[in-house]
Amino acid sequence: MNTTPLALAILLTSGTLASYGQSEKPNPTPTQKNSQKQSQKQAPKQSKAKPTKTPEQLKERKELQKTFAISSTIQFKIFAQLAKIQSNEISLEHQLILYTILKNTREVAIHQMRGESENRVMQNSDGREAVYDKDGNLVQNGYNDGSYNYAIGKDDPLLHFLLDRSPWLLWGMGPKDPTSIEERTYAYMGDLEGGIRRANAALPYKPLPEDHTWTEVGQLQALALLVKAIELGKAEEIYDLFNEGHTITDKEIVRVLTKLNAGFDLLYNIPAP
């Protein structure tokens, strides 16, 4: 598990995200400008082509949605959380907050684990992803690699969490991934920090209609996983960050992420079947 204090790690992650154009950019110093120019020269060019998923890929995703929706419900025991969402005990306002956080979460820190903070992530619109190190080399170390995403976070944030992020939190990149669940949840908090801040900056949201239902198979399960992580970590104050007119402080977000991190650790450290 990463032993860097969480508050420091979050601040470092925020700086890294900004320097790689993953969030709002502060005014760079002359040294940072030179570093950014050099990084831009070394980084491979991203293709302008925007391929879309093929009918075969979409069919495969539909099948995975059904499989993961059922398996997640059973494996993570989220029956109670599903009932709370469907009955609106978890209000539509809170459901929208969680959806918007995921929609604004740009996954960079999860590809910069074990000190590789200068890795850069590039993603195609069909879900293919590549990670490059500071010298422009493709990262293939088994834990910070790019992968294929069945759903794109900004388009289908709930399905992306269920199909791509949740399995990664549980199993990593594959059988040879040396990282622990604790390392992966810790890294994911760095990305959620940006998602929370950007979601807060996007306020106010257009409310969901009173009769709103999540129609895509797996969306409810994704929300239920998040709700259970919040409950396990006693991180319900995450919703307070989105009160009208509220400006998030560093102290608040560190406190929320610390609790949320504990909740994710408890959720994903489930006994092997």
Mean pLDDT: 85
End-to-end C-alpha gap: 23 Å
Our Rg estimate from Cα atoms comes to: 18 Å
Lateral strand order in the biggest sheet:
1-2
Number of helical runs? 9
What is the N-to-C order of secondary-structure elements (H for helix, E for strand)? HHHHHEEHHHH
Biggest sheet descriptor: 2 strands, antiparallel
| Uncertain segments | 1-49
Helix/strand class? mainly alpha
Strand content: under 5%
Please tell me what the overall shape is. Answer: globular
List how many beta strands DSSP finds. 2
Helix content: 40-55%
General description of the model:
With 273 residues, the chain is mainly alpha-helical. The chain has a domain at 52-115 and 153-268. 51% of the residues lie in helices and 3% in strands. It is built from 9 helices and 2 strands; from the N terminus they run αααααββαααα. The protein has helices at 6-19, 30-42, 55-75, 79-86, 92-103, 157-171, 181-201, 219-233, 250-268; strands at residues 120-123, 129-132. Strands 1-2 form a two-stranded antiparallel sheet. Strand 1 and strand 2 form a beta hairpin. Helix 6 (157-171) runs antiparallel to helix 7, helix 7 packs across helix 9 (250-268) and helix 8 (219-233) crosses helix 9. The longest helix has 21 residues, at 55-75. The chain is globular, with a radius of gyration of 18 Å. The protein starts with 5 loop residues before the first helix and ends in a 5-residue tail after the last helix.
